[in-house]
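Problem: given the chain below (286 residues), write out its structure.
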Amino acid sequence: MPAIRCRQITETDVPGITALLARGFPSRDVQFWQDALAQLGARQPPADLPQYGYLLESGDKLVGAILLICAQMQTGEASLRRCNLSSWYVEPEFRSYGSLLVSRALAHKDVTFLNISAAPHTWPIIEAQGFCRYSDGVFVAVPALNGLFGSSGVKILDARTRPTVAFDPSEQDILVQHADLGCISLWCATSERAYPFVFRPRRVKKLLPCAQLIYCRDVGDFVRFAGPLGRRLLRHGKPFAIVDANAPIPGLIGLYRRGSMPRYFKGPQKPRLGDLAYTEYAVIGV
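Solution.
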């Protein structure tokens, strides 16, 4: 067997990686992976982090890949480098080399890594790799029912509208960039401040029309503005909202599902609930 090598994915590898991932994830066609890798190619990752991720090759044959979606996040005065591990696949006869691929991907010690779509059978594996669970389930809310008979005095603004009240300019960048990725990006503006929200349209089990909460300043803000946000989401045909949670969320109408869609992290900073910005949900639409 030719020697196994692990290296960064480059632009010239994209056609081969597309074909490899289409074999590894037969529920998604070649066009999906072409679009996903095109999105990664259009992004500018932080310095010394990969554009696409890493691959395994045996001779001149691509036999494994893991995509990394890397971003520089601003948290108050601090800046955080974060990478979402996504779409890991190794051809069956080379599975014993999968740990080489993952260890290369996790080599940057100053980066916080996320795994937000781990299949149940992989949970013990990623925990053995040092990942910790930070979200234990999801709350499926019907936000339009909140404050149904009251007026909140909140204005819903488009992502590109500059609020006339206080707001964080870096958060407008998040809203606009996610809107360009196909997300529903909105401001909730009160008389004092504008609060950012990003949702990703999706269908759970290909049936239930939902909006995944991708970004907000705090989950409490979503509870506060659930009514007007929910009625705006209804206009997009999304009556349900999915929110990462570790327990039922007081003030929201809906159902908590423990153990559903848990989120894991490894690195210097534990992610907060309500922040899946620049992850696979938003960037490649998994």
